[in-house]
Design goal:
75% of the residues lie in helices and 0% in strands. The protein is an all-alpha fold. It has two domains: 60 residues, Helix Hairpins; 81 residues, Monooxygenase. The chain is globular, with a radius of gyration of 20 Å. It starts with a helix and ends with a helix. GO terms for molecular function: ATPase activator activity; protein-folding chaperone binding. Interacts with HscA and stimulates its ATPase activity.
Length: 171
């Protein structure tokens, strides 16, 4: 079975040309969209629907940097073990604790400026992590990239908490 990159005839790299991905997706969708199979047999319609669904899932995976990184690691034999492996470097764990304290303080004080500053810190860390993960993946260092993806997953969840805190202030 071909992988997501093969489906769109794109190189299996983290640094993916999003315009090329969009064009390839539209091309594949144009060929397999169920509307093109209105007069086809039920079996042909089912196959078209399966291909359209697969193209949608592949596109969503490759379009999202975190999902793309995770997919590339798994494609290269590295299981992220997201459910069982939460081991992180001590510096990152300390940063997490500091951010959680800042979030708690900002919530308690109903301080939108502090939440904004925290949001900016997390966005910057996410950007830096993505850059490092991309370099690791594209140089074949999938083990370290997997650790970076696990950190990125924390950042995504924590960023949601910051946004929930913003919403709570507004209501």
């Amino acid at each position: 079975m071909q992988n997501h990159f093969d489906l769109f005839q794109l190189p299996a790299t983290f640094a993916l040309d999003m315009n090329a991905l969009d064009c390839a997706y539209r091309d594949v969708q144009g060929r397999v969209h169920p509307d093109r199979f209105i007069n086809a047999t039920d079996a042909e319609k089912r196959v078209a629907m399966q291909w359209a669904t697969r193209a949608n899932e592949a596109y969503q995976t490759l379009r999202n940097p975190q999902k793309r990184a995770q997919y590339l690691c798994e494609l290269n034999g590295v299981d992220l073990q997201t459910e069982s492996n939460s081991a992180m470097p001590m510096a990152f764990l300390m940063q997490q604790m500091e951010w959680r304290d800042e979030l708690g303080d900002a919530r308690a004080a109903k301080d939108a400026d502090a939440l904004e500053a925290l949001d900016e810190q997390v966005k910057l860390e996410r950007k830096n992590r993505l850059t490092a993960i991309g370099e690791q993946i594209d140089s074949g260092d999938f083990e370290h990239a997997a650790q970076g993806v696990r950190a990125l997953m924390f950042l995504e969840k924590f960023n949601e908490e910051v946004h929930y805190a913003f919403e709570a202030l507004e209501s």
